[in-house]
Amino acid sequence: MKLDFEEVGVTGLAKSYGPTLALAGVDLTFSAGSVTVIQGANGSGKSTLLWLLALLAHPTKGEIRFGKYGPGYADGIRGRIGFIAHQLQLYPGLSGRENLVLAAKLQGISHPSERTEALGHALGAGEYWDRPLRTYSRGQAQRISIARALLHEPRLLLMDEPATGLDVKSTDAFVELIAQEKRRGAIVVVVTHEAQFAGSVADRMLHMDRGRIVEPVA
Amino acid sequence: MSVLRAAWLVALKDLQLEIRTKEILTSTGLFAVLVVTLGSLAFYTDPVSSPNVAPGVLWISILFCGILLIGRSWALERENDAVFALLLAPIPRSAIYVGKTMSALALLFVIELLLVPLCLVFFQIEPSGVVLPLLVLVFLGSVGFVSTATLFSAVGIRTRARDLMLSVLVFPLVAPALLASAVATRELFAGATVAEILGWVRILTAFDLLFVAFGVWVSRYLLSEA
To answer: I want to staple B185 with a disulfide (CB 3.0 to 4.6 A). Which of A118, A162, B55, B163 is the partner?
Structure first.
């Protein structure tokens, strides 16, 4: 069963990989209908924070709460999380359509083909829809990755460099898509180095350095 | 979503990829045929000794072929970090393990359907009364081996030493199943009846149940963190 929540909060969140401290105690709250952009140098802990929020890793210390639910309800919470990672996380041997239908079925969407078709057309993926994903350009594959994250209308939408490979027109369309998700009530967290893109989507900008939130960016 | 429904989707995805590329069946199938052919040329001496040699060649072939097949199946998951498509889904973690085991078993069984007659022909073993019990032995031996190897391959998505881990950990663990399979096959080739190899079948079934249950239980924890 998919669980719903209006807020995501992290308290004292820390993550170590062996002797390397990737996240050094982060306290944050993300609310429904808001877009938070996180910036910072390479290795500052931005992606680690997203991975913890996506329940793909366990924190070394601290806690994540999805409304009233903790990570103990992971299977139910995952159905409300969409994640666009830096890697595509799609099967190169399957077509864009097949990748999305698989994701829709795994998400338990009742009419996977119809939902996939509608989203594919909305993202302009019709031309290359049935070709194997390995023949796509990075930008084309990125659109499929975005569609996969949005398929199940997630409450928490996590994005790691989501505009990678998108051309100007597609980036504009993507900015509008994020605005739509925000209006729908999604909690959007974006990690990006692209200042212009960040400025066009952010309600709140945070800066990370050596695993900590160091200052809010105006 | 139930474990079985999710596992079926994972397995179907693997089979769909294989039907598209035929990569795993072609490479591992050719390898398996080569091992049986070389084994028959190197070890076949006469019809009396062949029932003793054939089981070893057959099971070595299945073992190497299975390791190749499972390694390739998980390599597809690592490409593009595609495995996260599964880890991000709201499905029980054990469904990923069960699904990958089901697809690997199905592909290995296709190769075994080719290997078994080839082995019987090359080693001149009388097929009447042997084929069906042999297929049962091959299936039971494969379940234990594939379920164990898949579990350690799942761990291997997080480690660089995955190939080393497979050979160091999996081979000793599956040794009881492989030995039971090889001995039961030898007795079958030597003319034993089904009733006479039933003890080995029971041992294999117990091993399979134990390792599948252990895999389902432990995969929930092994796959909980990427």
So the answer is: B55
